[in-house]
């Protein structure tokens, strides 16, 4: 009887193994990819490269970020005592208010006071004063907390609060902390300030994941005041200093009322995650819901865990419900196809759509990718304007005359799919009017981007911008 050599066995087995690998990869692609074009592209790659294709898909095609976030971030802090109102008496916020309610299963919270704080010149003194007046607790979360004069001044205020017996907790993003060296965390340790790093970067054990960053910005004082918005902590936000080479214009907000409880609950969720405390106690809150209020608000959390896509769904839905105008100001504008579609649809319905982006961007590849992604909107006739330097980091979405969305999220896939973000819906004509004024003050100084400008880019620039756009989900 003739025996089959190991070489012959391998010769006959390898094609079957390749076929099985391709079929398994194709099956996973068909069951898990939501974009038909992406699914078709991965399957085509597996057919063209029957060995390398499945391996490339295994390394780069599987969304491990979402799976890891759902596995790791499973913090549940009950908040049954945080009452909300579905439809406040005497208001007419529908249908816009129903969108966030369906997304979160939460109604609206009163906001008795909302103050706009422009740039570090207004924000940092207000934060330091609030910390100095704190009686029971100070809770601070920031993506970037720079080790420079602004960061050190806030650290000193936190240390003074610790010294007088105030409970202080600080969350710093593990990657954002590396924006300036030495890292601020070591200084906080010396001052005796309790803090933790959100998804820290470590060599042992290896944890160098650049995604799943905590991009939320929060300061809670005694459960009575909350600061949130887009500003980080650092000298770059001192925008009135002409000699500041990297100055940034930005917006932040100080809020009071029942909405503060919702924001504090969000902080404690992140704190419990950082401390790996899965049995956190029920959160009760400090404030009582006020039935009569001129401003109503709702917290929207977004992240690669079970909250994934909530802010994108929210923005797409409120834009589709707009009747008169959609005003967008964002530092990074790389919208997904669904948002491009609703913006064009709103424009075709006769809704005014205007988008303000920075003419000078702090991340060059993002600026290049934005040039490539604007063409479809410009072809549809939508207004996109560039704001002059310095870099404008403000992020607001205004719908008609009563709806405003503020918070930490940019309009790009990194913010809306990879980061932990925070948004606050504001239902108020007065707040909307104040933010419209801020918007129009910036618009007057801005320059329209024309389709002709985009088309007249040289071929090397178009190729550069297109390559940057291909990697836009990770920028």
Architecture overview:
It is a single chain. The protein is α/β, with parallel strands linked by helices and 475 residues long. It has three domains: 6-62; 77-295, Endonuclease Chain A (Endonuclease, Chain A), CATH 3.30.870.10; 310-474, Endonuclease, Chain A, CATH 3.30.870.10. Helix content is 42%, strand content 18%. It contains 17 helices and 18 strands. The strands form three sheets. The chain has a nine-stranded mixed beta sheet with strand order 1-10-17-16-15-11-12-13-18, with helices on both faces. The longest helix is centred in the N-terminal third of the chain and has 27 residues, at 6-32. It is globular and about 80 Å long. The N and C termini lie far apart (62 Å). The model has no long low-confidence stretch (mean pLDDT 89).
Q: Strand order, biggest sheet? A: 1-10-17-16-15-11-12-13-18
Q: Tell me, what is the CATH class of the largest domain?
A: Alpha Beta
CA gyration radius, whole angstroms: 24 Å
User: What fold name goes in the CATH topology slot of the largest domain?
Assistant: Endonuclease, Chain A
CATH superfamily of the largest domain: Endonuclease Chain A
Percent helix: 40-55%
Annotation field: number of helices:
17
End-to-end distance? 62 Å
Strand content: 15-25%
What would CATH call the architecture of the largest domain?
A: 2-Layer Sandwich
Shape: globular
Characterize the main sheet: 9 strands, mixed
Strand segment tally = 18
Based on secondary structure, the structural category is alpha/beta
Low-confidence stretches: none
Domains, number: 3
Mean pLDDT: 89
């Amino acid at each position: 009887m003739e025996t089959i050599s190991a070489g012959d066995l391998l010769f006959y087995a390898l094609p079957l193994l390749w076929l099985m690998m391709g079929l398994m990869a194709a099956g996973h692609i068909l069951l898990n990819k939501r974009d038909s074009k992406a699914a078709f592209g991965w399957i085509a790659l597996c057919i063209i490269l029957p060995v390398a294709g499945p391996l490339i898909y295994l390394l780069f095609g599987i969304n491990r970020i979402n799976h890891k976030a759902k596995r790791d971030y499973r913090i549940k802090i009950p908040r049954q005592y945080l009452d909300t109102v579905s439809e406040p008496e005497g208001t007419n916020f529908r249908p816009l208010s129903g969108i966030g309610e369906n997304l979160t299963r939460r109604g609206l919270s009163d906001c008795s006071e909302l103050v706009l704080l422009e740039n570090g010149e207004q924000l940092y003194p207000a934060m330091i004063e609030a910390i100095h007046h704190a009686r029971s607790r100070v809770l601070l979360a920031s993506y970037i907390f720079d080790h420079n004069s602004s960061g050190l001044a806030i650290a000193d205020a936190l240390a003074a609060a610790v010294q007088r017996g105030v409970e202080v907790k600080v969350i710093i993003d593990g990657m954002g902390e590396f924006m300036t060296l030495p890292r601020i965390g070591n200084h906080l340790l010396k001052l005796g300030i309790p803090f933790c790093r959100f998804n820290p970067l470590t060599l042992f054990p290896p944890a160098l994941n650049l995604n799943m960053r905590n991009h939320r910005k929060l300061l809670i004082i005694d459960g009575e005041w909350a600061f949130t918005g887009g500003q980080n902590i650092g000298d770059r936000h001192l925008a009135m200093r002409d000699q500041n080479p990297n100055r940034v214009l930005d917006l932040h907000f100080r809020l009071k009322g029942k909405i503060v409880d919702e924001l504090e609950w969000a902080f404690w969720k992140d704190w419990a995650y950082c401390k790996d405390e899965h049995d956190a106690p029920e959160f009760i809150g400090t404030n009582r819901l006020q039935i009569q209020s001129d401003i109503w608000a709702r917290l929207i959390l977004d992240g690669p865990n079970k909250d994934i896509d909530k802010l994108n769904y929210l923005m797409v839905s409120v834009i589709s419900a707009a009747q008169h105008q959609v005003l967008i100001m964002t530092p990074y504008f790389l919208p997904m196809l669904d948002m491009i579609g609703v913006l064009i649809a709103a424009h075709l319905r006769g809704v005014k759509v205007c988008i303000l982006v920075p003419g000078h961007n702090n991340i060059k590849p993002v600026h290049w990718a934005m040039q490539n992604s604007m063409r479809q909107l410009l072809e549809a006739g939508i207004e996109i304007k560039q704001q002059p330097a310095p870099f404008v980091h403000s992020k607001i979405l205004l719908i008609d005359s009563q709806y405003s969305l503020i918070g930490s999220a940019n309009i790009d896939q990194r913010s809306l799919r990879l980061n932990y973000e925070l948004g606050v819906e504001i239902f108020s004509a007065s707040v909307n009017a104040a933010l419209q004024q801020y918007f129009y003050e910036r618009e007057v100084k801005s320059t329209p981007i024309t389709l002709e400008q985009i088309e007249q880019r040289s071929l090397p620039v178009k190729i550069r911008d297109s390559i940057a756009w291909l990697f836009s989900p990770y920028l």
